[in-house]
Amino acid sequence: MLEESIRPDNLALVIVLQACGILAGKEVPVNEKGEKTMALEIGRALHYDLRTFMLEFDNFVCTALLNLYGKCGAMIEAENVFMSFVSLDVVSWSAMLSAYVDQNCGEKALLLYRQMLQEGLQVDAVTSVVVLQACSALAESERTLVIARNTRKTAALEIGRAVHADAYKKQFAYDLAVGNTIINMYGNCGVLSEAEHVFGVLNIRNIVTWNAMIAAYAEQGEDEQALMLFKEMHKHCITADEVTLIFALKASCSMGCLDVCHCLYFDIICAGRETSSLSASLIHAYGRCASLKDATSFLNELSEFHLGSWNACITSYAGEGDCTSSLFLLEEMKLMGIKPDGLTFISVISACSHTGIVVEGAECFMSMSCAFRIVPEGKHYGSIVDLFARAGDFSRVNSLLKSMPMPSDESVWLCLLGACHTHYNVELAKYAFDHALMVQPKHAAAYVALSNVYAYAGIQDAICGPKGTN
Questions:
Q1: Which is nearest to 464 in space by CA: 425, 437, 445, 426?
Q2: Which domains are assigned to the chain?
Q3: Which of 130, 182, 308, 449 could form a disulfide with 97 if both were Cys (CB 3.0 to 4.6 A apart)?
Q4: Alphabetically, which GO biological process terms does the record hold (predicted)?
Q5: Angstrom distance (rounded) from CA 241 to CA 208
Q6: What number is the average pLDDT over the span 405-410?
Q7: Neighbour tally for 431: CB within 10 Å
Q8: pLDDT digit string, tens, across residues 137-147
Q9: What is the pLDDT of residues 301-319, one digit of tens each?
């Protein structure tokens, strides 16, 4: 079109921006910010074209550009576009809210929603859905300590209830999309009674409605209720999708229901849904039900090799203390050309640690970086420290602690404290205790672990905080 010297109008640019957004949805993020470089580069070029064609102040076009930047994870650009609007309407506010929600910035989304209300704008059904999604994102946030997280969940619930009440007044609370999002919000906030009420009063239900309620039960540990609702869904002739099956597997996994796992296996096979995530979930469920034979059999049946499925099988054997089978599967993966990832090595090294197979565990740790170019993370260091500490090889533990290139998380120090208890190593236990509290002050598990070391060694000294603290 440009080569033919045809000047695009606002509709043409909106369509191109939407196409770029579809590309962003398929692209894998390349950094911690979640940015998608290919789509982002095209988006920036299109942004330049908007200025060239003097459409940078067209609300219709700018909203599409804002949506694109949000999908690319380029939040600074998205915010700049939002601030550049000559006049903000409900659609543009909703686009910015949606961008925050897509990037799991629930808190920012809700602050923007408050600002929107202060500006006197009327909220419609679309905006309500986005705000309810923001409440869910805030309730699910795990980036802070438990106390702070509970405070966030309380705030999310209060705002969610207010949005629900507002939607009820405006007579779109039982719109299908809004109702589904309300159920999901209450489920994420742990208020199952209110989720059940909304589920019960919805006149029309689709698969998303059933999934939201089943997920709410499964996530809150009400596994029996989740499976009962799954069976009821079958009675209503609603065909389960991948989401339904994953949460049904999660529930059966927690309950250890092997019969349900077998039924779900047939559902997956008959529907031809042997996707990576479903296959891994089924293998994991078989493992949790201690049916490793079924887990291995299903792994061998798969027509495509999914890394997640192999990891699930290795983890299942590791969980049962079968280190030999975990190591065998790792070698089989390599022979089949499946490259292991960080999770694979965590499972194998942990299995070696719990069975005392030190040499093979150490070799796995070394091969991570040497053979597969995988940079060890905190959990890898925790597993290898645990391996050497359980074996009483504290000289290698000390060498590892000195060579760790990153601030380790508390799991490393708690593993070390447990091993010090077994081997009466009081001096190293104090060192591990101090570092555990530096990572997370007032960590109850660290105090309990050091108390056990002292009690086992017959020491009655009072436990203080880390050096330099009271």
A1: 437
A2: 376-470 (1.25.40)
A3: 130
A4: RNA modification; system development
A5: 9
A6: 65
A7: 18
A8: 888 875 443 43
A9: 888 888 999 999 999 999 8
- Say if CB 437 and CB 404 are below 8 A apart: no
Which residue matches tokens 């905190």?
378
Cβ contacts of residue 175 below 8 Å, gap of 6+? 125, 167
421 vs 277, more confident? 277
| The one-letter amino acid at 316 | S
User: What's the token pair of residue 387?
Assistant: 């391996």
Q: How far is CA 460 from the centre of its chain?
A: 43
Q: Which residues contact 379 (CB under 8 A, 6 or more apart)?
A: 342, 346, 409, 411
Spatial contact of 65 and 47, defined as CB atoms under 8 Å apart: yes
Q: Residue 31 class from Cβ within 10 Å (0-12 exposed, 13-18 middle, 19+ buried)?
A: exposed
pLDDT surpassing 70 at residue 2: no
Nearest to 316 by CA among 303, 335, 297: 297
Give me the residue label for tokens 């006049």: 87
Q: What sign results for the dihedral spanned by CA atoms 308, 309, 310, 312?
A: positive
